[in-house]
From TrEMBL:
Phylogenetic classification of the source organism: Eukaryota, Metazoa, Spiralia, Lophotrochozoa, Mollusca
Name of this chain's protein: Uncharacterized protein
This protein's record includes keyword Transferase: yes
Listed GO CC annotations: membrane
InterPro entries in UniProt: Glyco_trans_14
Pathway(s) served: Protein modification; protein glycosylation
Family: Belongs to the glycosyltransferase 14 family.
Domain of life where this protein originates: Eukaryota
Length: 216
């Protein structure tokens, strides 16, 4: 067995055995579309009292980086050789909801990737300081070099992306693709699945756009 496979098993053991609020949900059945299990999980979400962490709590937790990384469940090794050889660069543009942002980062984090985080200039100091504290725990996660006051529907929506693209290029030229996210998104694919898809793209891009039809 390779060292990567052995370490991966150790990493996954923690993710599925400790620190989970719900331990009796059949995750495989949910992913397989079992309606009964999905309904049962929905009922559980209404009975479990969640404790929402404030920005100050994240700032305090991130003072001990090794503990933060371990107990929040971050993946700290490449999960496959394919992923190791195919680093991806991400930007995350966020404004509010530090808990949602941290959950997103935790889901997409892999040590071979790069992550540029932009916090809207309109965000509170508590939010900004909490994000800074989190990024300091990782060598491959960093704050954007400029903070932009983003206005929806204006060019300022694009500017943070350009800032992050430039910052990422200055950090490393080894990443293969750039993916831009907001703090309110969540991935539907694992990093391994993303890498397989991006490999199939073979250097091409996937960008959505709308064509306006003008009538006289």
């Amino acid at each position: 067995m390779s060292s990567i496979a052995g370490s991966t098993r150790t990493e996954r053991t923690f993710l599925f055995k400790e620190g989970q609020l719900v331990t009796d949900v059949n995750c495989k059945a949910i992913f397989d579309g079992d309606h009964n299990e999905i309904e049962r999980a929905n009922l559980l979400t209404k009975t479990i009292v969640r404790q929402y962490l404030q920005p100050s709590a994240y700032q305090q937790l991130a003072q001990n980086c090794s503990s933060f990384i371990l107990h929040r469940g971050y993946i700290t090794i490449p999960m496959s050789e394919m992923e190791r050889e195919f680093p991806v660069a991400f930007s995350i543009l966020m404004y509010k909801d530090i808990e949602m942002f941290e959950r997103l980062l935790r889901a997409i984090y892999r040590p071979q990737n790069l992550y540029c985080i932009h916090v809207d200039a309109k965000a509170s100091d508590d939010i900004f300081n909490a994000v800074v504290a989190i990024t300091k725990c990782f060598g491959n996660v960093f704050m954007a070099s400029q903070r932009i006051r983003v206005k929806w529907g204006k060019l300022s929506v694009l500017t943070p992306e350009l800032v992050c693209m430039e910052d990422l290029l200055h950090r490393s030229s080894k990443w293969k693709y750039f993916i831009n996210l907001t703090g309110q998104e969540f991935p539907l694919k694992s990093n391994f699945e993303l890498v397989k898809i991006l490999t199939a793209f073979n250097g091409s891009n996937d960008a959505e756009y709308a064509v306006r039809r003008y009538t006289a």
